[in-house]
Design goal:
Chain lengths: 459, 493
């Protein structure tokens, strides 16, 4: 479904609450769609025999099918749930219902002191948090020798893993890739697990991405050969790591799966700008909710990618709204033209939004794509902004056509095409693409300086 | 040439099956491939490196396509009619998202009066809904959206590969499907009844009996004296008995038709009423002519005399003016008298002729005189909003489970306060507590805004069953939404 930026703003303003959570944000806490539905049905006063709150928590008694009502409590300062129901889902429908009800009808809750069962739970939580804080504060001196030893051990482990991967890849190619689709799951998953053992999570992710290829699509052969080639190149690059320049060393290490610590990134040079959120993608990866934001700096004219990870049932540290602009300083990760970045300070202040500077035509856009890949052949999802586009089709294939009548194949659903047409009426528009080899994915568009986007969520 | 294709093929086959020999590539690339092969320890390593290079080479040549045969999408024609504000579009899509079908139709009807169009951004969602096969209101929504979406909507339909709104009945009647024809005929009958007859006369004989029957049934919309000759013709000449029967039924619904006059003539002088002795009846012999008129000789009820049954059938087929003549008084008085003391005891169903002739005045005077539960259910739908205010629906509410479909007046006019409270009381006092939210939404379209206070009071009464309280709150919520629609679409009320 297509969203207009002003609609989102309206939603946020219209449904803002003392809790400072929008209904949409509460829904994000739900483990699945069924819980959202059940939670919504419980967000009416009639379902609750007791509704009370304090400055710290909201609690209530929900009459279930049994004689004794369920006791539900939500910590509204640091969102957390507790319920006496037997549901294995977390948060359960009662917790969600209570929070939704509090969000929409705060007046229905009677302010009072916390009863024993609520106070006990809150105290326990506070104690846990204190312990965690103390542990974090205890700055034990870093044993550099031990750290170097650990790093050397890891390097050896990765090298062993790469050796195994190389043998396996050569076997695969010797036998021919034609047999891969029928055994894709087992083939890649086993080796991905081995790479996890070898502490090369980047390689494991690449193998899992191969496993996820659509082997029913026409271009699987292209994708598979290309990705295997890149994987091999990466293993060879790691083997020759010391011969590479520093930025390439950082890039290859990151690609292999070495993390760059937050402190290390934030210690680097920062770029202060007005950052517009071009697109947000939400995925559940390895049981972890991952929000990816593509951003664009108004003055620096640089793209940035910001990742936000959070566990199911918790809220993300930062929830940026597509189409909005935030004033802040971004620190980029080390690497070759690495676009991944972190915000130096929070909270971010919202700014008046702007229309980003776009490539005038597809010639300019493809040149930008080529130059990005020239600098870093491992780059994927290259962000590109182009204006003056029209839609054209050839059978079921869709193309974006620029003012010079030049085309680029684009990837989007039929409904997206209709969404674009319903807004533009067939007139030129600007778009944000995530460019890859065979197709450019259209995710966001501007028409008459209004920003429109499609939700990109898959869990 | 495509530099990746030979490498993909080699990789698919496997290096064990066939050695990859680079040939036909651009010269610098081919030389580099050979160099890689020479330096590599094994063919697999070489092929992987060659692959990585070839794909990078391929990407380095990414340029926009030229000369590809594509069809550009044409611009939408401009609309001269202004668009509503975004808020109106948001409201309509919100109603759609919440599946508020009655409020959405209500909003569409209100919007039509404003002579403005739905903003383009919101049109697609609403058009998709109007063409959803599971949508029970799809035809009405399509008719309303054809006006509310303007040229942009028509253009969008084409892009969505949906059929046109179908406003050109004359042009498409020939090619239209049976269902479409029925819809078109109903629409024409509403606007120009005579044109409907003309349309039917053209091709009716070529249709199957079932289709003929269904098309003729459409004539009950705005049925009048001018349809009589056509229906007479069908009743006497059609090949199908079912079609004949439908034509006869329709003829018997025209109060001044020859058909109804025959009923009146047969019944005239056969009924006698005395204030003290009550009703008495003359006997009448069953003739073949009566059989042709659709009358039955033998009563299905063994307790009823066949002679009286024959007269009762006739009495249930005559219009109010027959009873005016019978009682020798004006219609109001005749209706009152008949309602108060009808002939043939309990066997006589007064609702039958009233419904048959769709006689609003007769229904009103009958219900005003005596509103028994059976009469209420069938006749209230015939009354205007003002007339409903003057009748009492009775106190037996236990068996009132739902509001009959006919009570929801097609003109959408808001009910009066008294009638609204009576209907709600009936629903709330019903022994079945379950009232779906769909009913609440539909009722809200007809209830006056002032009833919200009364509903809140009902919900707040101690010991009120939670279902009733929820039902009252739901109606109140929907009424608030209706008020928002009224404000947004410039309601003058």
């Amino acid at each position: 479904m297509l969203y207009l930026q002003s609609e989102i703003k309206l939603n946020r303003q219209g449904k803002s609450m003392s809790l400072n959570l929008t209904e949409e944000q509460i829904i994000q806490l739900a483990p699945d769609a069924a819980s959202v539905k059940a939670g919504k049905s419980l967000s009416t006063k009639a379902k609750w025999v007791l509704l009370e709150h304090s400055d710290h928590a909201v609690w209530g008694h929900c009459q279930g099918s049994g004689k004794t009502p369920y006791q539900t409590v939500v910590d509204i300062k640091h969102i957390a749930f507790k319920c006496s129901c037997p549901s294995r889902k977390f948060p359960c429908k009662h917790g969600l219902g209570l929070l939704l009800l509090y969000a929409s009808q705060t007046d229905s809750f009677y302010q009072t002191d916390e009863p024993d069962w609520v106070a006990a739970w809150l105290t326990k939580r506070e104690e846990k948090a204190e312990k965690k804080e103390q542990k974090a504060k205890s700055n034990a001196p870093i044993d550099e020798a031990a750290q170097a030893k650990r790093q050397a051990m890891r390097h050896q482990k990765v090298l062993h893993g790469i050796d195994e991967l190389e043998i396996w890849m050569k076997d695969l190619l010797r036998n021919g890739l034609i047999h891969v689709p029928e055994q894709a799951h087992a083939v890649f998953e086993n080796m991905a697990r081995r790479m996890i053992d070898a502490q090369a999570s980047g390689l494991a992710n690449r193998l899992r991405a191969l496993q996820e290829l659509n082997f029913h699509a026409d271009n699987w052969k292209y994708e598979l050969t290309d990705q295997l080639g890149k994987l091999y190149l990466l293993t060879q690059a790691y083997k020759n790591l010391k011969a590479l320049p520093q930025e390439w060393q950082d890039e290859i290490r990151t690609q292999i799966g070495y993390p760059q610590s937050k402190e290390e990134v934030l210690a680097g040079e920062s770029i202060t700008d007005h950052w517009m959120v071009l697109h947000k993608r939400s995925r559940k990866i390895n049981e972890l909710n991952t929000d990816t934001y593509w951003m664009y700096g108004q003055q620096s004219r640089r793209f940035a990618v910001y990742f936000s990870f959070f566990t199911p049932g918790s809220l993300p540290e930062t929830n940026l709204i597509p189409g909005n602009t935030y004033n802040g300083s971004l620190c980029y990760y080390k690497g070759v033209e690495n676009q991944r970045a972190l915000f130096k300070e929070y909270p971010l202040s919202a700014q008046e939004t702007f229309t980003p500077l776009c490539c005038h035509d597809l010639k300019e856009a493809t040149a930008l794509y080529r130059s990005t890949l020239k600098q870093n052949p491992f780059a994927q999802n290259v962000p590109i902004l182009v204006e003056n586009l029209l839609l054209a089709h050839n059978g079921k294939s869709l193309y974006a056509q620029d003012i010079n009548k030049e085309l680029i194949a684009i990837q989007m659903q039929e409904t997206t095409k209709i969404d674009i047409l319903s807004v533009t009426g067939g007139k030129p528009f600007a778009a944000f693409f995530l460019a890859n080899d065979n197709c450019w994915e259209l995710n966001t568009m501007w028409y008459q300086s209004d920003y429109y986007f499609w939700k990109d969520e898959r869990n | 040439m495509n530099v990746t294709e030979p490498i993909i093929n080699a990789a698919l086959l496997g290096t064990a099956a066939k050695e990859f020999i680079p040939s036909g590539f651009p010269l610098p690339l081919e030389e580099t491939f050979r160099h890689i092969q020479e330096k590599s320890t094994d063919p697999e390593s070489a092929l992987y490196q060659i692959g990585a290079l070839a794909f990078a080479y391929h990407r380095a040549g990414t340029r926009p396509l030229t000369g590809t045969q594509t069809t550009p999408i044409k611009e939408a024609p401009e609309d001269t009619t202004p668009y509503f504000d975004r808020e109106a579009g948001e409201l309509l899509t919100h109603l759609h998202a919440n599946r508020n079908r009655y409020l959405l139709l209500y909003a569409y009807r209100k919007a039509i009066a404003c002579k403005k169009l739905i903003p383009p951004y919101y049109q697609q969602t609403l058009i998709s809904r109007a063409f959803d096969r599971t949508n029970p209101d799809k035809h009405e929504e399509q008719a309303l959206l054809s006006i509310l979406t303007g040229n942009r909507g028509r253009w969008l339909l084409c892009q969505m590969e949906l059929p046109d709104w179908g406003n050109n009945e004359k042009e498409t009647w020939e090619t239209a499907s049976h269902e479409e024809r029925k819809r078109m005929l109903r629409q024409i009958r509403k606007e120009n009844p005579e044109q409907g007859i003309a349309l039917l006369q053209t091709e009716l004989k070529n249709e199957s009996a079932a289709h003929r029957n269904e098309l003729i049934q459409c004539l009950q919309i705005n049925l009048c004296k001018t349809d009589e000759s056509f229906l007479q013709d069908i009743a006497s000449t059609d090949r199908s008995n079912n079609v004949k029967e439908t034509a006869r039924t329709l003829l018997s619904r025209i109060p001044d038709s020859e058909w109804v006059k025959t009923y009146c003539n047969l019944l005239r002088g056969k009924l006698h009423y005395n204030m003290f002795l009550g009703w008495s009846y003359d006997t009448i012999d069953f003739t073949p002519e009566m059989k042709q008129l659709g009358l039955e000789e033998i009563s299905p009820n063994k307790k009823e005399k066949d002679k009286e049954y024959l007269l009762r059938q006739l009495a249930e087929r005559v219009p109010l003016h027959f009873w005016c003549e019978f009682y020798n008084c004006h219609p109001e008085k005749a209706a009152n008298k008949l309602a108060k003391r009808p002939p043939f005891n309990t066997y006589f169903n007064i609702s039958k002729p009233i419904e048959n002739f769709n006689d609003n005045l007769w229904a009103y005077h009958t219900l005003k005189e005596y509103a028994d539960p059976a009469r209420i259910l069938s006749l209230v739908g015939l009354l205007t909003a003002e007339q409903r205010e003057e009748i009492t629906l009775g106190r037996n509410n236990k068996e009132f489970h739902s509001v009959p479909e006919t009570w929801f007046n097609a003109d959408g006019k808001t009910w009066g306060m008294k009638f609204s409270i009576q209907v709600l009381n009936k629903l709330l006092q019903s022994k079945y507590y379950y009232n779906p939210t769909e009913t609440a939404e539909r009722l809200a379209c007809y209830l006056p805004a002032e009833i919200a206070c009364w509903l809140e009071q009902q919900a707040a009464v101690p010991d009120t069953h939670s279902n009733i309280a929820n039902f009252c709150r739901s109606i109140t919520e929907y009424i608030k939404q209706k008020e928002r629609i009224n404000i947004l679409f410039n309601d003058i009320q």
